[in-house]
Amino acid sequence: MDKSLLKVGYEKNFGARDDIEYFFSPGRVNLIGEHIDYNGGLVFPCALSIGIYAAVGYRQDEKVRLVSKNMDNRVEFSLNDIQYKEDDGWGNYAKGVIKYIQEEGYNLKGADIYLESTLPDGAGLSSSAALEVLIGYIMLYPILGEKIDRIWLALLCQRAENEFIGVNCGIMDQFSVAMGKKDNAILLNCNTLEYEYVPIDLKDYKLVIMNTNKKRELSESKYNERRAECERALEYINNYRKIENLCQASLEDLEILKEDALKRRTRHVITENQRVKEAVELLKNGDIKGFGKLLIKSHESLKNDYEVTGFHLDAIVEEALKFEGCIGARMTGAGFGGCALAIVESDRLKEFVSYVEEQYYLKTNLKPEFYTCSIEDGVK
């Protein structure tokens, strides 16, 4: 995004000044490894070229003022009085992060922050994590510059979302937004935070994000219900043998589980974790078609065993896979709406988009949106 556009937005809201700083925080997509981050598994996210841009003017007082081109409400508060307020909506994500940074002993400056997002709202590309990490980075920048510990920042932002907002998210989103690396995905062990960058070269294919335009609200979805089911399954298995998390279970352990639902949830967790390992090997060997097949298997498991896809995600993935130049597609994110991803032949992108758009609209009466994304660096 052109800095001059951000400058205009900033000055319209806060007045002119010549020392504005500019920042960017990416959205993220998880290529494979869905709903296993909170089960101690391996995930494979990357940071995207779409995200949230900010123009910032630092203040000499305690005041923080937030304005987003994408939201109706302005948010204002003082650094020495940070409370959760229902009316502040999206601003609470920023407030939680700032509150916890101060609790870690940092003496922050006030700031006027103008934001513009190119992320579709509520689409599951992690706009909340992008915002949290962006605000944390902005507030720490005058003190630490480029020396900000990004893993520490990711953990702090996760804590803000868990405790201040009350959404029980895993670490993946904040980690990938903070730690993203251009043209690489991150193989992340959510249990130990060990990670490895894996170069992504899709050759003659492109990564396409397909937004169903069926909004989902994570905190209101069945997300917490699925987490609870996984915790129950882990308890049952631990009566027979000790494991730390559900990703350490084996397919033999399914015999222990009497409830059909728990069996299926656990089977998804075990097989999806295995698919992440396979995906990394295939990509390291340049087998893009093999990777595409794994995406299809992942979606089937999320649909049948984990039951988090829903009508709209299934419709868009089914239509994508009917198109000859698409070698793999699956839902991504929490599910129940939001986005899917597809791997599509580069020279057939236009055809693909118009085909899926038409077929999806016939099924759902909704117009989808498509984003051809590159893989980019984390917050900067």
Task: Describe the secondary-structure layout.
Blueprint: H1 3-14, E1 21-30, E2 42-43, E3 45-58, E4 63-68, E5 75-78, H2 91-103, E6 111-117, H3 127-144, H4 150-165, H5 172-179, E7 184-189, E8 195-199, E9 205-211, H6 223-238, H7 260-284, H8 288-304, H9 310-322, E10 326-331, E11 339-345, H10 349-364, E12 369-372
Parallel strand pairs: 4-6
Antiparallel strand pairs: 1-3, 2-7, 3-6, 4-5, 7-8, 9-11, 9-12, 10-11
Helix pairs in contact: 2-3, 2-4, 3-4, 3-5, 4-5, 6-7, 7-8, 9-10
Structure in a nutshell:
The protein has ten helices and twelve strands. With 380 residues, it is an alpha+beta fold.
Distance from N terminus to C terminus (CA atoms, Å) equals 14 Å
The CATH C-level name of one domain is: Alpha Beta
Helix and strand content put the structural class at alpha+beta
Work out the number of β strands.
12
Q: What oligomeric state do the depicted chains represent?
A: single chain
CATH structural architecture of one domain: 2-Layer Sandwich
> Mean pLDDT across all residues, rounded?
95
The outline comes out as globular
Description:
The protein has helices at 3-14, 91-103, 127-144, 150-165, 172-179, 223-238, 260-284, 288-304, 310-322, 349-364; strands at 21-30, 42-43, 45-58, 63-68, 75-78, 111-117, 184-189, 195-199, 205-211, 326-331, 339-345, 369-372. With 380 residues, the protein is an alpha+beta fold. The protein has a domain at 3-199: Ribosomal Protein S5, domain 2. The strands form three sheets. The chain has a five-stranded mixed sheet, with helices on both faces. A four-stranded antiparallel sheet has the order 10-11-9-12. It has a three-stranded antiparallel sheet with strand order 2-7-8, with helices on both faces.
